[in-house]
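yo

u said u wanted the structure for the complex thing, so here. seqs first:
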Amino acid sequence: MTKTTANTDCTECMLAKQCVPSGLPLKDLFHLNSAVNTNNIFEAESVIFRQNTTATHLYIVKTGVFKTQRIINDTEHVDNFFLPGEFIGLDSIAGGVYANTAVAIERSLVCKIEYRQLAALRKRFPGLSDLSVKTYSNALAAASEQQNTITLQCASARLASFLVSYNKRASLHQQVNTGFNLPMTRQDIASHLGLAAETISRSFSKLSNSGAISKEGRRVNILDAAILQEHVMEPPR
Amino acid sequence: MTKTTANTDCTECMLAKQCVPSGLPLKDLFHLNSAVNTNNIFEAESVIFRQNTTATHLYIVKTGVFKTQRIINDTEHVDNFFLPGEFIGLDSIAGGVYANTAVAIERSLVCKIEYRQLAALRKRFPGLSDLSVKTYSNALAAASEQQNTITLQCASARLASFLVSYNKRASLHQQVNTGFNLPMTRQDIASHLGLAAETISRSFSKLSNSGAISKEGRRVNILDAAILQEHVMEPPR
DNA sequence: CGCGGTATTGAGCACCATCAAATCTGGTGG
DNA sequence: CCACCAGATTTGATGGTGCTCAATACCGCG
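structre next:
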């Protein structure tokens, strides 16, 4: 399930600027390389960790997409999606067990590091401590944002808001922006947004008909950001 | 608006065990006392900070209750409530500006500390760094939990879930548990849960009629936790 | 080419939002 | 102490959004 290729040095990583390496001085990067396990391959559908198992590692997405999901009332609910440069497992450090199950949506690469080793590094390199706070603060802000998306709006507005946010995240680490891929199923999106899959489908059609987006299968293109924003604003609620 | 009484030493604070003081050794606590501004009084309705203003301080609720709210699409939405022992402003450290407005719901006391001073203390006392990570991790986990509450369930289930969670938080810092107070308006609860105020009212009646809770005004008593849990489980969705 | 899972589209209905009115509450001033 | 008022809460009636069930269309894969 988890094959490990030859470790690629953190100094060579494209994501280093916004990842753990940015927290410590160049000359000390070798300390990190011994702690981080890079380029773990996960095939589509394979699981990084399972809900309620002992939480030990933090994961960073290098390529690909993951989702976290949890069982509530005997039904699975998709908590979140994780794109390259994003951290999986931040919420489980304090609790001792993973709060949800992390699954690869497509073939993906992740780096991993033990919570304990990260804590030890923080003690030696204060810059890492600042980076942790910053990372967490951003994650919390994103969570609030998401909550607003989900709470406030009607179905098509929620989807529009989700697309705007997803597009922003996806285009952070790529130059050209010729649309983006939504590798997850409609059902996953529906679960994440608290809607039915059919409603997602209808909302996609609505956004498409209004000229805000175009879609072919799971590939989406934002044609008119202004129109899309109007959908986000749409009442009721 | 913000009167400051004589500082009460952090060593004497009831909440010290789960607050910032727990992050550093007893002998160094005096460093904290000079950085923390304790016992700031906020009357009901008064504002700690406003959305989009420069973010400088972290706040810790000592007594009372606060809410954070933000303007979205020209309507106010309640992000969260904050009870004694909880931190306000964690999500705004990285962004530079407060992501929402914090308002006292009843007469309350808070301590405050500058982000910068806290960062400086973290560098000197590694224990504070661990505490920060733990605090943030818990906050993130709580946010996910909340998202599930909001996303998943029908109206009465959402309210039931909210009550269970709120009761747990409120009873953390008090011995006897003879019901609890909900000092916020129904409208606030409604906004937080993404429902209409009338729906909250009806859901309260439903929970009450089933024998799960009793209520008189804003005071709520959980009569039968098992029945309440059944409401949380309730389909549809 | 045929199969299984995913996505879309359609019809009917339930839940909740909205509007409206009545009741309750707390606070103020007579 | 009581009358009064504004805001909050509850209760009622109605309509719309989105869920459910069902059928069809689409896609990837053997």
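Residues 185-187, 197-198, 200-202, 204-205, 217, 236-237 of chain A lie near DNA strand C (CB under 10 Å from a C1'). The CA atoms of residues 49 and 102 of chain A lie 6 Å apart.
cya
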